[in-house]
Fold:
Amino acid sequence: MCGIVAYVGPKQAYPILINGLKRLEYRGYDSAGVALLEEELLVYKTKGKVSDLEEHVQNANLGGTIGIAHTRWATHGEPNQVNAHPHFSQSKEIALIHNGIIENYALLKQELQTRGYVFQSSTDTEVLTNLIEDIKLNEGVSLFEAVRIALNQVTGAYAIVVMDKNDPNTLIAARKGSPLVIGIGQNDYFVASDATPIIEYTKNVVYLDDEEVALIRRDKDLKIKTIRNQEKTPYIQKLEMNLTALEKGGYEHFMLKEIYEQPTSIMDSMRGRIHLEQGTVTLGGIIEYEQKLLNANRIIIVACGTSWHAGLVGEYLFEDIARIPVEVEYASEFRYRNPVIYERDVVIAISQSGETADTLAAIELAKSKGATILGICNVVGSSIARATHAGTYTHAGPEIGVASTKAFTAQVTVLTLMALRLAQLRGTIGRSRFMQLITELSLIPEKVEQTLKVSKKVIEIAEKFKDVRNFLYLGRGYNFPVALEGALKLKEISYIHAEGYPAAEMKHGPIALIDEEMPVVVIATNKGTYDKVVSNIQEVKARKGQVIAIVTEGDKEVKHLADYVIEIPETEEMFVPLLATVPLQKLAYHIAVMRNCNVDQPRNLAKSVTVE
Ligand code: M6R
Structure:
């Protein structure tokens, strides 16, 4: 979603801002813009990519040591130059960038129109810009006060940065529902939607909380107030991220790099948490909430997209080994369907970005009903990490590709550790079985490494099927979420329609789609319902469908039936998703590359979905 970068300090702002926008490209956007203040307050913007903006400003005056910049993911109004940010106020004295949605913008716009304001764009953002100007002029207050007062009149979500032509030393930043980080340098300040544009300049950051407004002045201390005028002391944190994690490191795409990082990212998610000698698992972040987990009636998992698929694996794990009922909910449905939530429920919110608006809202709802909320997030210090009572980070490192890969396997790893810990506490599995499982789990990074070697076969399959219009993915038990995830990966980056189904459901409808044109990916590993899945493959073959099967090394039966077979190493049934997902990620990747798709920034998608 929209990306924000701002700078004030001794250096030229433009290179910092453009560099920052490039770091935020992964979030997904359709237009870009920048405002710079030297003698004049100048705004440049264009539809398209940051590189288009660079071209657009080639001969422009780009001087100034203060500025704001933005990548826009359209909500109100089509993606074009006029709707791109920054937006000027009517007098052209104030410029503003915004991520989020001002829900009552239509009403505010009407009021401003009656007072003579004329709007250039169809955006909610221009309304906020003029509202601030109106308050500043009519109430004779500073820009900071005008922003604070204006935000009391606004409903919805926002992260904004504002600058004023008459004050070349000051930026005002504020947030509610959309993320904003302030970087504190030697003698300069940086503001961004996340830490990626900031990390190369400083590790000291302040995460703004909801309804906080920051006064950021050249050579002065940072001041923060709530929109209700309460002073807050800035809490400075140290970033742990490093710059190399944000580079492609020789890979053609971030997605490919992230697929190949999985042996390490899974290892990092387990590091210090499995103790083979003592025969135990610890999750430091939730240790104080273990009693709550033990006393819980049930676990409710809330998430979206790929994180929801990880949650589904979590459901199978918790029920299988810890014998506790689990419900897995799409956060967007949960938040609006008046769900029954008890104080003894434990809600686990899963999110890579930690900023997904629906997941955040689901957390707030569950919190208001007295439930205990635990988080599984990748981005340290993110809104969800801060909104939950406690949580466990996945430690997968920054995920830049819009299609989630290493975050998924890291989430599944953490859920596995949680389920094992809970099973141990509840005594639902015996010691020797527990030992067997943690020993096998600690071998998974090596097995993922081995699984990554399937490239040749995957490329051959990608070549064969790159031009089809539909794909079906089937799996049962632990492999059902893998089928869903495989299908999602393919559709989001290659734009081929793909459906994931529980294999046995095929005969209740999707079987009608099967003919010689239809590739069917079946996860048919050798445990659990293997025999039943073999029957499902036979049903597909009987209708001339083309079967691509993910099987366990050494499999004989499916090999005879399927058209293509990809082998993965033998492991416990519950750990198969950690392996079987990997060739499906690679299949989607290679098909997308062969179709010339923008793998890292697929059309219409955003990495962090900060609006509902
Ligand atoms: O950051 P989150 O994990 O909360 O994001 C949830 C979904 O938006 C995300 O998983 C999305 O489905 C990805 N594009 C999947 O690859």
Summary: The pocket of 5-amino-5-deoxy-1-O-phosphono-D-mannitol is lined by residues 304-307, 351-353, 356, 359, 402-404, 488, 492, 605, 608-609 (CB under 6 Å).
